[in-house]
Amino acid sequence: MTDLILDEIDLRILNLLAKDSRSSYSKIGKSVGLTSKSTKSRIDKMLKEKVINWFVTLVSPNILSEVS
Questions:
Q1: What is the CATH number of domain 8-67?
Q2: CA pair distance 57, 45, nearest whole angstrom
Q3: pLDDT digits over 27-50, tens only?
Q4: SS3 of residue 66 by DSSP
Q5: 55, 10 contact by CB (below 8 A)
């Protein structure tokens, strides 16, 4: 990992992803004042540098038992 420095926009992107990791690049970009292409580039960079490790969907085990 390099010494990646996160700026205010990166931190805002991380905050938005923490709230909803399924948000589109376009939606995130509009919220932080970037194009979807620039937003994707920043997210890709954070993935490469292991700032973001993975996107996870957590499902309640109770829900799964109700489906059976």
A1: 1.10.10.10
A2: 22
A3: 999 999 999 999 999 999 999 999
A4: helix
A5: no
Distance CA 13, CA 21 (A): 10
For tokens 């059976």, name the residue.
68
Rounded to whole angstroms, how far apart are CA atoms 25 and 4? 21
- Report the alpha-carbon distance of residue 15 to residue 31 in Å, rounded: 11
For residue 49, how many other CB atoms are within 10 A of its CB?
13
User: 27 CB contacts (<8 Å, ≥6 apart)?
Assistant: none
Cβ burial of 20 (10 Å; 0-12, 13-18, 19+) is: exposed
